[in-house]
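Consider the following input, taken from an annotated entry for glycerophosphodiester phosphodiesterase (Sphingomonas yantingensis).
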Amino acid sequence: MLILTILALAAAAPMSDRPIVIAHRGASGERPEHTLASYERAIEVGADFIEPDLVLTKDDVFVARHENDITDTTDVAAHPEFAARRTVKTIDGERHDGWFTEDFTLAELKTLRAKERLPKLRPQNTAYDGTFEVPTLAEIIALAKRRSKETGRTIGIYPETKHPTYFASIGKSMERRLVDQLHTAGWDSATAPVFIQSFEVNNLKALRKMTRLRLIQLMSSDGGPADGAEPSYAAMRTADGLAAIAAYADGIGPEKTLVVGNDGKGTTLVADAHRAGLKVHPWTMRAENVFLPPADRVGTDPAAHGRLLSEITRQLATGVDGFFTDFPYDGVAARDAFAGTGK
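Applying the prediction step yields:
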């Protein structure tokens, strides 16, 4: 019945025009996030792009972690040799007590192992705790290129610069390092399989001067950019705000409720952004009840899976150009059914 409903909502679209499925931190609903295994799984189930959040090590190597605070995503606390490196830092106004990538060399980080960040919601993923390394951007690029050759389809990467103003404040500016690495990989045009995303503004503007790669301005439903470049994300969603974004970016990545509210009703944001010439890639579609709109929840267990395909279908019906999901298998199924391909 769901597939029939999806098909009824959409006309068939050419393959090249289909919204892209962006594997959020890989297939993070099935494997610990930001591991090569998570990215491999995402590619295996058909994701178009894999998404690494990027932070820097002490020796200036990009690695994939949700935050530079690695307390909850690695087994660092179990390593007595690093106990003295626990510290308190304020990152973008938030206090963190833990261990941070910028205090470790890559060689030291490689002695750690990833663990599931949401063990209560995804206990099945804890079976992989202690198995996988923290991957570098270079390893992720190599994976995408290798799997593109093996599968015969282009696997793109969608890196996010995490806390760029903070890293700049400690002498570790991200922009030139990232552009150089991507250009060296042969990705240096607006048609390359790359999007660079950020919640901040000034680093995207700096990137725009360095590269033709596509840039995405992320935005939350509340608050504003940590660099203070704009007063609020709400102001950035106005017609004037979207026009200003279009001067330095190619699209926006809004929190999903800015596209379709929890009441199931769509907003005008996609149409407004398209009028400004911007792509729209909302985040993040997750299967667990706790992350779903009330109408899509099944039962009362926050960790139980609800009707993710229904939520994705409502997002697609607004005309989005792609979406982030922790469950790319479901994302691909919903997208392809909506497009009428059945593939």
